[in-house]
Amino acid sequence: MAVPPFDVTALRRHPDVEAPNLQAWDATDRYLLDLAAERVAADPSLRAPGAVTVIGDRHGALSLGARLQLGAATVRSHQDGLLGERAIAANAARLGVDGIEQLPLGRALVDGARLVLLQLPRANAALDEQAALIAAGAASDVVVLAGGRVKHMSRTQTGVLSEHFRIVDATLARQKSRVLLASGPVPGVGRSYPERRVDAELGIEIIAHGAAFNGTGLDLGTRELLGQLHLLQRTEGRAVDLGCGTGVLAVELARRFPSLSVLATDQSLAAVDSATATVSAAGLRDRVRVVRDDGLSAQADDSAELVLLNPPFHIGAAVHTGLAERLFADASRVLVPGGELWTVWNSHLGYRGALERLVGPTEQLHRTPKFTVTRSLAR
């Protein structure tokens, strides 16, 4: 008997940012579940424990859908972001769904899997690392259904999958989504992760997993912020690299200002693993602590003298200021009175008003047509 489609509209994004223009699912989730349901109907053994793995599920549509629509006995699921992990758990608890095991990106996630549902990541390096892991650890008859919104897909994604699978086909578009079908795994090919590169200008080794923002490169906003650190007056006490990525800002703070104790924090598991490796390579594990956190939710009030922040301005594919403002508020709470928040942001976003409102008096330290660097004093 056919199982009705999972009602993805029952999902919430909480504790992730919620807004009228942000959904906990998209048409790609529905397309992936419908295609997977056809395969499970043809081969009911795909419902067996350990057969289904989900990668890149944002808020639970695929993980819960695999249990409820596909009838999978268990689901192993990986979501890089901590907010996504918590949203999946919250949705599962609210809807009474069990049998979902959330795991880091590693062999235990894919071992013996026969059907993998994957939301295509934005970075090809992330897809490369995921595809290599599946090819090496999943069952020999594994089928990967990798979906995305057509406007964000490119032929290079097909090329990445083709390095790790002998057969890669594409479906027709449906509701502006398309799915790539990969089978015939070819283990042991391609690049190894994490990748490593020495930045010639800074003289530090940057280490990055595929999903870490900007990989082993140094994004332009971070360079602009680093270029203003000579103006820093608070060079003792406790500093935070908020949204640390690969940990470059944390390493540079510790190297330039030996009297600072530095905390690096990010909600991305790939970022935390990358930053931990970057800090270790710099020989600074005794002075820089790296943690995974939703902003600064685990940090005490009035516990830092300095916070550095290069905030994201996208939530998924949408340009949205909600996450940045949440980080501003977190920094304000954690800073001691008179503590400093140094922020670099895309000039067109005009964050100064939000910084004044959420943190305190804000001055512009540097501005280019693309980036603005500001210093805000916590009230």
Automatic annotation (TrEMBL):
Pfam families, A to Z: MTS, RLMG_N
GO biological process: methylation; rRNA processing
Keywords in alphabetical order: Cytoplasm, Methyltransferase, rRNA processing, Transferase
UniProt signal peptide: none
RlmG N-terminal domain sequence ranges: 9-182
Methyltransferase small domain span: 204-374
CDD domains named in the record: AdoMet_MTases
An annotated Gene Ontology molecular function: nucleic acid binding
Keyword check for Methyltransferase: yes
PROSITE patterns tied to this protein: N6_MTASE
EC number: 2.1.1.-
EC category name: transferase
Name listed for the protein in its UniProt record: 23S rRNA (Guanine-N-2-)-methyltransferase rlmG
